[in-house]
Amino acid sequence: MKWLFFSYSLPAEPSKARVYVWRQLRKLGAVNYQSVWVIPHSGDRLNELKKLIEDVEEYQ
Question: Per residue, what are the HEC states of 3-55?
Fold first, then answer.
């Protein structure tokens, strides 16, 4: 099985951004392991993760 790994950093405030990212990762089936999110690989999940990366970049 292939896996996707994702790690990010966002400012503490506003918390809205962190909550949004957390919820999106949970929707993808991600689990947090020692500050890294681990997601089962699939084409759909990869596309959704790419969108989430764009969102994180906008929040920074």
Answer: EEEECCCCCCCCHHHHHHHHHHHHHCCCEEECCEEEEECCHHHHHHHHHHHHH
Q: Residue 38 and residue 31: Cα distance in Å, rounded?
A: 5
> Which pTM value belongs to this model?
0.89
Backbone phi and psi for residue 39, each to the nearest 5 degrees, phi listed first: -130, 130
Q: How many CB atoms are located within 10 Å of the residue 6 CB?
A: 17
33-49: pLDDT as tens digits: 999 999 999 999 999 99
Cβ neighbours of residue 9 closer than 8 Å, sequence gap 6 or more: none
